[in-house]
UniProtKB/TrEMBL annotation:
Keywords: Endoplasmic reticulum, Isomerase, Membrane, Signal, Transmembrane, Transmembrane helix. GO terms for biological process: ergosterol biosynthetic process. The lineage of its organism: Eukaryota, Fungi, Dikarya, Basidiomycota, Agaricomycotina. It comes from Lentinus tigrinus ALCF2SS1-6. Residues 1-18 form the signal peptide. This is C-8 sterol isomerase. Its EC number is 5.-.-.-. Belongs to the ERG2 family.
Amino acid sequence: MKWMKRLLFLVFAYSVCSILDRVKDRWYVFKPDYLHELAQAAVHEHPNDINAIIPYIVSNLTTEYSPRVVAINPNSSEWVLNNAGGAMGAMYIIHASITEYLIIFGTPLGTEGHTGMHTADDYFNILVGEQWAFDPPKLEMEVYKAGSVHHLPRGHVKQYKMHEGCFALEYARGWIPLMLPFGLADVFSSTLDYWTFYHTVRITARENIRNLLLGKI
Ligand SMILES: *[C@@H]1O[C@H](CO)[C@@H](O)[C@H](O)[C@H]1NC(C)=O
Ligand SMILES: *[C@@H]1O[C@H](CO)[C@@H](O)[C@H](O)[C@H]1NC(C)=O
């Protein structure tokens, strides 16, 4: 009887997950190709100048996307440090909702780590510098330069390196809350940087609520 109940519960949970997986697309606002073109245009206009690239991208997004459809955070001074998968950098959250996020992530120092195992598709548009990746059994490194995009399909994992100074426009789509434990776990197991944790949660929650109020999940 107990096993029957557990089995029924598993079937039920599986059904809910597969339905959620099928319907998530309807809330997507951003398009990977559009963001890639925008990142390329920004790199072309301001090569190697992250301080000019970021306002270029944000003003494009605030012009092209109606504030009635999607909430964009225009404050590009709002950076938080982030440790995940052994890598460290900082991020500026441009958009955060339940099915998508768009951030600038990077560091002028370089860093290296595990991409994390995610339930979302990830598009890493390099703005400045290079990102390197290792995807065994392929033993040659992958090199992504400014203007290129590194697409990490969901469920796929690699070792990556932000080689020396590197910044990227990162777009993820899928059920984002499932990614948060990877992004935040290091606070509890390693950095104990609760001040950064507080700001990360505060900004993420604020942007999610701004989107939910527009009906954008
Ligand atoms: C925004 O970027 C896209 C892609 O590069 C471009 O087609 C569009 O004209 C830009 N819009 C503005 C207002 O700059
Ligand atoms: C932008 O973010 C910075 C850093 O968090 C903050 O000091 C500043 O007040 C913010 N500006 C606005 C207009 O909200």
